[in-house]
């Protein structure tokens, strides 16, 4: 039942991600060419600032997920109710603070960045509307934490699909009628309101035992939430610096037009990261449940199988983008973007590979409420990222910003992360690395070699043919995986079909005998 639940959650997340990614993929070049490099760059900067406003969440969604999943598993609905009510009360004040922060940003935004004077007024209004959207999303995000704790990823995914589809339709209609990026921001506000309303109603229907009150939380409840959410806040702060400071540094030290070049490469990194996140976010509530039940064996299994799954999903995408990224960007956005955006993409992919491998273990650490040390590492990485990016952008431009992101991430993920997570679940680092990284990377080698030779000797002229090439080469990866993990596959088949097939090796180990068992 657990495996089935994990699979359903992952498939629901991937369905929502597939819709959002497909929409973003086809919509991005349309928006860029309709708005132009400068206007699109301003829009990206506004979106980056809105991400920083979201930091005022203070990590409360993770705390809600932790205590609702724990309370649900132990039948303690009072604990869940206290956590959600307290989070709502705190977020009311946070939402007000976000809007006030947006008002301040709106006044100084055109002075911080090279925004053309003709766009300054629209940029200020866009930040105010974005602040209102973030405020509303922060408050209703508590209910997203409830649905996550209940493993209702299908409901979350459906709401995401509806929101993404309506958003894309609104953007296309507005751009076709000649509206500016300010109209896009207003459209985002209206659609977010509807999506958040659906979120609240769905959460309350799925957890009828939840009785909410909007009053000041007790000292004990507040302290419990703060103990968890403080370190989650630090991690979120670091993630925002790592993921969203790049565009701001590029805009501050170069120009808004260069932001577009950087953002194109960065957007592909974001899509690849979201594919893995859609799977690994399901691990946190599961880890919380296993930890509450004292099942260390299940935690180790979740770590190994989750890391393998993350690598199996991410490596084919990352290998193809690293070897063929410039060709893809040329066909997708235009030849003028191929080399600059492709170079940014290749640099960022170096750190993405190691980050996606540890995404599963990150969910386990959150679920076990052991993320204090992770917060310290994240802050160190963010500080190194920002400092190195500012240092290098003055010397090698936007490529320096990409290296400033990659180098600190490599140090944290390679040196510090594996020993910590292995000690947490009680297993050897060497065994963890071989069972997850070693064997899966080895399976990706034939696919990578094929991508290299196709890129060099089989040029393409259209996106359709590019995807056809990838489809032809992709089976090399699962075939190699089946060969390397053949023993595990046999065990899965035995467990999956015990009444149909029985495999037995003879004494010499030279042949496999298969006998059908009778059904009773």
Explain how this protein is built.
There is one protein chain. With 520 residues, the protein is an all-alpha fold. It is 84% helix and 2% strand. The chain has 19 helices and two strands. The chain has a two-stranded antiparallel ribbon. The longest helix has 37 residues, at 296-332. The radius of gyration is 24 Å and the shape is globular. Residues 501-520 have low confidence and may be disordered.
Task: Based on the model shown, name its key terms.
520 residues, mainly alpha, 19 helices
Short précis:
It is built from 19 helices and 2 strands. It is mainly α and 520 residues long. Mean pLDDT is 80; it is low at 501-520.
The H-and-E topology, N to C, reads as: HHHHHHHHHHHHHHHHHHHEE
Q: Helix fraction? A: over 70%
> What class do helices, strands and sheet pairing give?
mainly alpha
Using DSSP, what is the number of strands?
2
How much of the sequence lies in strands comes to under 5%
Mind telling me the C-alpha Rg? 24 Å
Measured distance between first and last alpha carbons: 24 Å
Q: Overall mean pLDDT score?
A: 80
* Oligomer designation: single chain
> Largest beta sheet: what is the strand line-up?
1-2
């Amino acid at each position: 039942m657990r495996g089935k639940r994990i699979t359903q959650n992952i498939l629901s997340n991937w369905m929502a991600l597939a819709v959002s990614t497909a929409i973003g993929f086809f919509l991005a070049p349309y928006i860029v060419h309709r708005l132009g490099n400068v206007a699109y760059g301003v829009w990206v900067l506004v979106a980056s600032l809105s991400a920083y406003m979201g930091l005022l969440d203070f990590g409360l969604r993770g705390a809600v997920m932790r205590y609702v999943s724990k309370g649900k598993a132990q039948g303690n609905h009072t604990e869940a109710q206290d956590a959600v009510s307290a989070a709502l009360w705190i977020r009311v004040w946070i939402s007000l603070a976000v809007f006030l922060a947006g008002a301040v940003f709106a006044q100084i935004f055109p002075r911080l960045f090279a925004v053309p004077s003709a766009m300054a007024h629209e940029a200020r209004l866009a930040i105010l509307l974005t602040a209102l959207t973030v405020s509303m999303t922060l408050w209703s995000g508590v209910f997203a934490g409830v649905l996550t704790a209940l493993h209702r990823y299908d409901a979350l995914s459906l709401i995401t699909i509806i929101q993404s589809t309506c958003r894309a339709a609104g953007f296309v209609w507005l751009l076709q009628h000649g509206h500016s990026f300010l109209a896009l921001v207003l459209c985002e506000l209206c659609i977010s309101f509807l999506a958040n309303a659906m979120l609240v109603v769905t959460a309350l229907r799925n957890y009828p035992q939840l009785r909410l009150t909007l009053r000041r939380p007790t000292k004990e409840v507040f302290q419990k939430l703060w103990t968890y959410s403080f370190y989650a806040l630090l991690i979120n702060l670091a993630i925002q610096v790592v993921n969203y400071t790049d565009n701001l540094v590029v805009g501050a030290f170069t120009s808004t037009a260069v932001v577009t070049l950087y953002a194109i490469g960065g957007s592909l990194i974001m899509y690849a990261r979201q594919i893995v996140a859609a799977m690994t976010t399901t691990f946190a509530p599961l880890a919380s449940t296993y930890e509450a039940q004292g099942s260390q064996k299940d935690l180790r299994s979740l770590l190994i199988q989750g890391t393998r799954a993350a690598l199996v999903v991410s490596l084919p995408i990352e290998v193809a983008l690293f070897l063929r990224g410039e060709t893809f960007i040329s066909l997708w956005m235009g030849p003028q973007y191929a080399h600059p955006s492709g170079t940014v993409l290749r640099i960022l992919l170096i750190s993405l590979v190691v980050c996606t491998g540890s995404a599963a273990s990150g969910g386990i650490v959150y679920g076990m409420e052991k993320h204090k040390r992770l917060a310290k590492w994240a802050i160190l990485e963010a500080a190194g990222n920002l400092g190195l990016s500012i240092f290098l952008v003055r010397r090698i431009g936007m490529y320096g910003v990409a290296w400033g992101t990659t180098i600190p991430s490599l140090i944290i993920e390679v040196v510090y992360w594996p020993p910590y997570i292995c000690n947490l679940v009680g297993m050897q680092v060497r065994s963890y690395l071989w069972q997850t990284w070693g064997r899966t990377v080895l399976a990706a080698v034939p696919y990578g070699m094929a991508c290299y030779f196709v890129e060099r000797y089989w040029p393409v002229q259209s996106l359709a043919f590019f995807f056809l090439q990838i489809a032809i080469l992709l089976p090399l990866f699962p075939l190699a995986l089946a060969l390397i993990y053949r023993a595990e596959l046999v065990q899965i088949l035995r467990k999956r079909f015990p009444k149909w097939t029985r495999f037995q090796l003879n004494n010499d180990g030279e042949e496999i005998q298969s006998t059908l068992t009778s059904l009773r």
